[in-house]
Amino acid sequence: MTDILAQIAQHQADIAAAEAPNAEALEAFRIQYLGTKGLVKTLMGEMKNVPNEQKREFGQILNAFKLAAEERFETLKAALESNTEFSFDYDISLPGDPLPLGSRHPISMVRNRIVDIFKRLGFAVAEGPEIEDDWHNFGALNLPEDHPARDMQDTFYISQDPAWLLRTHTSNVQIREMEKGKLPIRLIMPGKVYRNETISARAHCFFHQVEGLYVAENVSFADLKQTLYFFVKEMFGQDVKVRFRPSYFPFTEPSAEMDISCLICGGKGCNVCKHTGWVEILGCGMVHPNVLQNCGIDPNKYTGFAFGMGIERITMLKYQVKDLRLFSENDVRFLRQFTGA
């Protein structure tokens, strides 16, 4: 025990004389004396070799040694922190470097604007899965397997039997909402859709859509037209010209396409409007009775209208962007133009 006491006395002298000019030296001190394999732990292990009548005295000496090491560590730590607190090698009063601010993507901005406009008309927002089964994407929408209109919406199939695919429109959300049977329905459905198309300035293999659905008693085509008139005026201004053209969609009857005067060329003709001066922005119509029946809704009691538009097309017109591919290329030079928006 005499040898151990001599060692403790020497260690106490070393502890009292220890210095820590930097964080590395302070950590080395902690590991040497207070670490899991440090001197304090090692000396505590010698307790088993001390005679019973001397254990109390030896324990007091060890506790004093441990306290001395801990106090010295805290003293060195406080001294190091006080020395480094104001040891800046630069002027902290100088203003900081400005951080570059990003912005919302133009597609997101237009999507939010569309949602805000229709919310003012009482439309709520509904969303659904992007991976869909054949029934909700085609079958329930009056598009059986052998229907030629399916060729207009060639998509990417994940599984053929049973058929699972990437949805070609957000109409699948319309079906899922009608199947719930909670009437009346007044909803818009924004989301991403996919089609197997050649990528060009006017088309892409994926894009974003907003569809709308209103099902209740005594809903007419006049309700549809006035709803869309209001939307166009709010989105593009009071001076924009509007026209409806008869069209065909399997899930609506009668059906129409809605055009507005091209805002990019002012009606003079460009590649976006195919040199006609008019741009189609959406398709619409009265919900087909077969679609209502497929969803368990009585077409003799309820009627409804539906519409769908591509957000990219609306964004191109609103911000006069001539190439749809710019929205997905993540070119910072393009995106920076919307920082202030």
From TrEMBL:
Under what name is this protein listed?
A: Phenylalanine--tRNA ligase alpha subunit
Q: Which key words tag this protein in UniProt?
A: Aminoacyl-tRNA synthetase, ATP-binding, Cytoplasm, Ligase, Magnesium, Metal-binding, Nucleotide-binding, Protein biosynthesis
GO terms in the biological process aspect are: phenylalanyl-tRNA aminoacylation
A GO molecular-function descriptor? phenylalanine-tRNA ligase activity
Instruction: Give the record's GO CC terms.
Output: cytoplasm
Q: Which reaction does it catalyse?
A: tRNA(Phe) + L-phenylalanine + ATP = L-phenylalanyl-tRNA(Phe) + AMP + diphosphate + H(+)
Q: What class of enzyme is it?
A: ligase
